[in-house]
Design goal:
The chain has 59 residues and is mostly beta strands. The chain has one helix at residues 52-57, and strands spanning 19-27, 33-39. It is built from one helix and two strands, in the order ββα. The structure holds zinc ion. Zinc ion binds next to loops.
């Protein structure tokens, strides 16, 4: 098993990048950009999918 392999499979929807910052085009009073953070709906921001074994165990 490769050392870098995660214990949980990486989410296929977001490819391991569950939270994306989106610029709104507006700026705060201090000049910084207003960012919206959107979490992946498939993995709920975890970046990983739940193993099938856990899903089965929950039923
Ligand atoms: Zn995801």
């Amino acid at each position: 098993m490769p050392v870098h392999a995660p214990n949980r499979p990486v989410c296929r929807d977001c490819d391991g990048f569950p939270v994306v910052a989106i610029t709104t085009g507006e700026r705060h009073n201090d000049g910084s950009r207003v960012l919206l953070r959107v979490a992946c709906r498939a993995c709920h921001g975890t970046g990983h999918t739940l193993p099938a074994s856990l899903l089965r165990a929950g039923r």
